[in-house]
Design goal:
Elements: E1 2-4, H1 6-9, H2 16-31, E2 36-38, H3 44-52, E3 57-58, H4 69-76
Parallel strand pairs: 1-2, 2-3
């Protein structure tokens, strides 16, 4: 698995340099048969760009704020909540 740092995600999809870098990172990871997870996703626009370029998973405030251990353990009891790019309803 390859993880894309939030510093590359935070200005998507507006920053042309970050768009090119992230697209290249995802393409390189796929050539190496690696799955990709992006950190720091905060907007639907960021999520959309990443999905369109083949990023399989994401994490960030768009999905959930950081959780204390007991809340995280509760979340794990419901596997339907742990789906790539799924936001809580």
């Amino acid at each position: 698995m390859l993880k894309i740092d939030r510093t590359f995600v935070q200005d998507l999809p507006d920053d042309e340099n970050d768009k090119a870098i992230v697209a290249a990172i995802i393409a390189m990871a796929h050539e190496l048969k690696l799955k990709v997870v992006a950190e720091g996703i905060e907007s639907l626009e960021q999520e959309s760009f990443l999905k369109e370029h083949g990023c399989e998973m994401g994490q960030g405030y768009l999905y959930s704020k950081p959780l204390p251990n007991n809340k995280f353990i509760e979340l794990l009891k419901w596997p339907d909540n742990i789906v790539p790019f799924k936001r809580p309803s």
